[in-house]
């Protein structure tokens, strides 16, 4: 299976290099030069947390959030995050974020 990992690593390098320069919108992945798309689909990926505090802790370590903390400070980001989560709080106090990810299976 090592060969499979090598091939996967090579594909990821190609995708990384091409995606780094791309301003992606829906359908853009399928149109990247040099890739032949085998399949493209959208995958529902709801993120659920027992409460806002847990959702906040889970997201504070994410790369974009870390940049926001460096820019605006931890207290400001915590406050903004708590406010932003309010529309997603369920009756039981849990938080549900209904994400959809675009997945494209392709080869070079």
User: What is the straight-line distance between the termini?
Assistant: 19 Å
Q: What share of residues are in beta strands? A: 25-35%
Sheet with the most strands: spatial strand order = 1-2
- Which spans have pLDDT < 50 for at least 5 consecutive residues? 1-5
List key phrases describing it.
108 residues, alpha+beta, flat, 46% helix, disordered N terminus, two-stranded antiparallel ribbon
Give structural notes.
This protein has one domain. The chain is 46% helix and 25% strand. It is built from four helices and two strands. Strands 1-2 form a two-stranded antiparallel sheet. Helix 3 (63-72) crosses helix 4 (74-85). Mean pLDDT is 81; it is low at 1-5.
What are the SSEs and their pairings?
Elements: H1 2-20, E1 36-49, H2 52-60, H3 63-72, H4 74-85, E2 95-107
Antiparallel strand pairs: 1-2
Helix pairs in contact: 2-4, 3-4
Quick synopsis:
This protein has helices at residues 2-20, 52-60, 63-72, 74-85, and strands at residues 36-49, 95-107. With 108 residues, it is an alpha+beta fold.
């Amino acid at each position: 299976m090592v060969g499979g990992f090598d091939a996967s690593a090579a594909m990821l390098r190609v995708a990384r290099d091409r995606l780094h320069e791309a301003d992606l919108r829906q359908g853009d992945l399928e149109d990247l030069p040099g890739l032949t798309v085998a399949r493209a689909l959208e995958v529902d990926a709801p993120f659920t947390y027992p409460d806002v505090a847990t959702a906040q802790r889970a997201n504070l370590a994410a790369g974009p959030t870390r940049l926001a903390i460096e820019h605006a400070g931890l207290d400001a980001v915590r406050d903004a995050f708590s406010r932003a989560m309010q529309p997603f709080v369920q009756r039981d106090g849990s938080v549900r974020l209904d994400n959809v990810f675009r997945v494209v299976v392709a080869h070079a």
